[in-house]
Design a protein that fits this description.
Length: 301
């Protein structure tokens, strides 16, 4: 099998995967997938004009004293994530790692949740993916990064192929010798990488698509050739495309038909892909085989 793509609710697929069967998990969950709740708090007071009748015919009026919107949305988000992260930990192989991609506003809460599931000692890095795109508010520092939390299932024994990582140019090559300058340097936990170029061949049209370059870097560093990579919030299938480029196998899951349609086009013509719960043929018949992979985006650092 090259890859397997499920059109399904991810918790169902996770529950059916054997324990310790996956070498790497990357996920980029959407914020606020739990139901948006607006719980209105009411106080009931006795009132002759009240619209409710209670004990002994007394009339009561309900007064709105507030709404608890944001905390409920947030509680739902963590409650949504928790069972899926517990499953991610279970299906990871003993030497496996999780890369958890999240927005700067939620990362702190998710870190606490993940520490509880993996253990604090299993936390290896907070990767800052910095980009330079979009508007710049004038009333604070323009937020131009995402956070990626890296956890090892076993912090004393995990895959990290330091020699496989693509090196990047020195910022000031004149300050290092010519040999070092030619070899480039190892990236740190701060990754400068463009977003998916808006008119490049990599673009699939899926709104939350992440760049292949950052996925390639994770997969090269944290898996060996032939490894199995899982992304159960797959979207446009970037993780699968990067896994293919790196000679790894993949399992992708998404419950949105638009994501599956994009993946059907993206993986058109790739041998050995198993589709579960979805027929990609109608999307592939109309699509000429496109260039699946593109050159890595320019990097700074
Ligand atoms: C932020 S997007 C991922 C984008 C992806 N990293 C890429 O590069 O295209 C999150 C995806 O999770 C999917 N999703 C949300 N809840 C899900 C669930 N319970 N089961 C399966 N997929 C889900 C959404 O449909 C969406 O495509």
């Amino acid at each position: 099998m090259t890859g397997r793509i499920h059109f399904a609710e991810n918790l169902d697929v996770l529950g059916a995967l054997p324990s310790s069967s996956v070498d790497l998990v990357y996920i980029d969950p959407p914020f606020n997938t739990g139901k948006v709740q607006q719980r209105t708090q009411l106080k009931t007071v006795r009132s002759a004009e009240g619209d409710r009748v209670g004990f002994q015919g007394q009339r009561y009026e309900s007064i709105v004293i507030g709404t608890k919107r944001f905390s409920d949305v947030f509680d739902d988000y963590l409650a949504f994530l928790e069972p899926r992260l517990i499953e991610a930990h279970r299906v990871l192989a003993p030497h496996g790692c999780l890369y958890f991609h999240v927005d700067y506003r939620e990362v702190h809460y998710c870190k606490v949740l993940l520490d509880g599931i993996f253990g604090r000692a299993s936390f290896l890095n907070e990767i800052i993916w910095a980009y330079d795109y979009g508007g710049r508010p004038k009333n604070r520092w323009p937020p131009k990064h995402d956070n990626i939390l890296l956890y090892a299932k076993d912090p004393s024994d995990y895959v990290f192929n330091v020699d496989e990582i693509e090196r990047i140019p020195y910022m000031a090559p004149g300050l290092v010798g010519p040999g070092k300058a030619a070899r480039g340097k190892l990236p740190t936990d701060t990754w400068w990488h463009t977003i998916v170029p808006t008119n490049g061949s990599e673009k699939t049209g899926y709104p939350t698509q992440k760049p292949l370059g950052i996925l390639r870097r994770m997969i090269q560093a944290s898996t060996r050739p032939g490894a199995l990579v899982l992304d159960f919030f797959a979207g446009s299938g970037t993780t699968g495309a990067a896994a293919l480029e790196c000679g790894r196998r993949f399992i992708l899951v998404d419950d949105n038909p638009e994501a599956l349609a994009v993946m059907a086009r993206r993986f058109n013509g790739v041998e050995g892909i198993e589709w579960v719960g979805y027929d990609p043929a109608p999307h592939q018949a109309v699509e000429k085989q496109r260039g699946l992979f593109s050159a890595p985006a320019a990097q700074e650092g």
